[in-house]
Amino acid sequence: MSEAEIKSLEAQFDAKIARDEKIEPKDWMPEKYRKTHIRQISQHAHSEIVGMLPEGNWITRAPSFRRKVALLAKVQDEAGHGLYLYSACETLGITREQMYEDLHSGKAKYSSIFNYPTMTWADMGAIGWLVDGAAIINQVPLCSTSFGPYARAMVRVCKEESFHQRQGYEIMLSLCNGTEEQKEMAQDALNRWWWPSLMMLGPTDAASTHTEQSMKWKLKRKTNDELRQQFIDQTVPQAELLGLTIPDADLKWNDGKGSYDFGEINWDEFWQVVKGHGPMNKKRLDDRRNAWENGAWVREAASAYAAKQKDRKKEIAKAV
Amino acid sequence: MSQETPLWEVFIRSKNGLEHRHCGSLHAEDAEMAMNNARDVYTRRNEGVSIWVVESTNITASSPESSGELFEPATDKVYRHPTFYELPDELKHM
What we know:
Strand order of the largest sheet of chain A: 1-2
Largest interface: A-B, 30 and 20 residues
Largest sheet of chain A: 2 strands, antiparallel
Radius of gyration of chain A: 22 Å
CATH superfamily of chain B: Phenylacetic acid degradation B
CATH topology of chain B: Ubiquitin-like (UB roll)
CATH architecture of chain B: Roll
CATH class of chain B: Alpha Beta
Number of domains of chain B: 1
Number of helices of chain B: 2
Radius of gyration of chain B: 21 Å
Shape of chain B: elongated
Order of helices and strands of chain A: HHHHHHHHHHEEHHH
Oligomer: heterodimer
Helix content of chain A: 55-70%
Number of helices of chain A: 13
Number of strands of chain A: 2
Distance between the termini of chain A: 53 Å
Helix content of chain B: 10-25%
Order of helices and strands of chain B: EEHEH
C-alpha cells in the first residue's frame, strides 16, 4: 500500500471513530491502533489474573462462610474477566501463549497495585472498596471505547464487578462496627491502600505520554487526573461514613472548585513499583510462572486425550 | 512455547423462546472441555439455559472488503419496506 493510500484509510478510520462507530477485528486499522490496543487490553487481562493472587492469600482464612463464598466468587470473577479480555485481545492477532510469555518474561505490565502485600483480613475490605472502586471508575468509560470486542468485554466486566466493591465496603463496615482492635485494623488497611489506589489511576496528565492519542481513539474518555479527582470526591464521604480517617493531612474540601484538594502523591514510589521494585513484584511473577509451569502436564494430558478421542472417532467411522 | 490450544466460540440461549447469541470465546482441547469452560466462564449468574460451543475454525466469516457487494444491493431496494407504499390515511389496520 502506498503512503497516500494509508493516509486516506487513516482519515476514513478516524472519521468512523469520531462518528462513534465501532471498529471490529477484521476492519482495517492503523498499526499503531492495533499495537496500542494489544498493549492496553493484555495489560488489563494480566491485571485481572495477577489480581487474584493478593486475595487468594485470604480465601482459606476468611472469618466466616459468608465471607468465604463471597471472596471466592469475586476471585472467580477476576479469572473470568481475565479470560474475556484475553479473548478480546486475541482478535487483534496475538496468541494467548504469546501474552502469557510476555507476562512471565516481565515484558508486559500489570497494574502496580497488585505488588503490595495483603497482610490482614481488613485488606480484603480495603481492596474491594478502594482498588475495585478505582478500577470501576477506570472501566466504566471503557464500555463505550471504539474497539468492539474490548467494549463488549468491559460491559460484561462492569456488570459483574459492581458486587465486588460492595462486598469490600461491607467488610470495612463490619470491622468499623466491631471492637477497637478491629477498627484499628480497618484504619491500618486504609492507611496502606489509600495512596497506591490513587497511583493506580495512572501518572499525572503532565507525565502521561499516551493520553492525547488514547482520547482520540476513545480508549480513554477522561484523563488520569480527572479520574483521580472523581475517585477522591466519591470516596471521602464513604470513609467518613465508616468513621475512618484518610491518611492525607492536606485533604480538604475546596468550595471554589467543588471538589477536594489533596496532598502530593509519591510518584517515585509508583515508578519504583512499576519498574519491578515493589514489595511483591517478584512473588507475583514467580507465582504466575509456577502456575503455568506446574500446569504444563495438565495441558499436555488434555491435548493427548483429545488427540486420542479424535483418532478413535476416525477408526469407528472407517469401520462403519 | 508449546502448541496453541484450539479456540471455540460460545453461544448462549438466555431463556427458552430466545435465540442463542454469541457471547465470547475460549480455548479448549475438545468439545467437552469447551462446554465445561463455557459454563464456568459465561454462565456464573444464570445467564443461560442452553450453550452451544463451535470450534472457531469451523466458522466462515465474510470479510469487510466484500461488504459492498454483499450488502449495498439491499440499500436501494426501498420497495422491500412497508413504508414505500403510499396509501390513504383513512385506511386502518394495514
